[in-house]
Amino acid sequence: xxxxxxxxxxxxxxLFMITTSAIASGVEFEDECYINxxxxxxxxxxxxxxxxxxxxxxxxxxxxNxxxxxxxxxxxKIMFEEAMVVVFxxxxxxYINxxxxxxxxxxxxxxxxxxxxxx
Length: 119
Fold this sequence. Notes:
Layout: H1 2-25, H2 42-51, H3 71-84, H4 103-118
């Protein structure tokens, strides 16, 4: 069944390409008139600047506060919200008895000794 679907898809794609190329081959565009929208030779302008070592120092523009909020704060909030909805799927590991003593009993013993020393 998968093979049949592959062949059907390939045949449909080939027919589509043949049809589109046949339609597109009949389309002809008219030649457009040349528009002299740059009435000077840009290469010549560049050459004059380079030959005369013209300094093109631009003035610092005034600051425009066009974003009246702190984008850093908003992006951090969005990243935090996106991170909080991530579900981590961690597979269960086998138990390893790597602490060969009772930590609860040990902590009680340390607290008892600390309270005795404090007196």
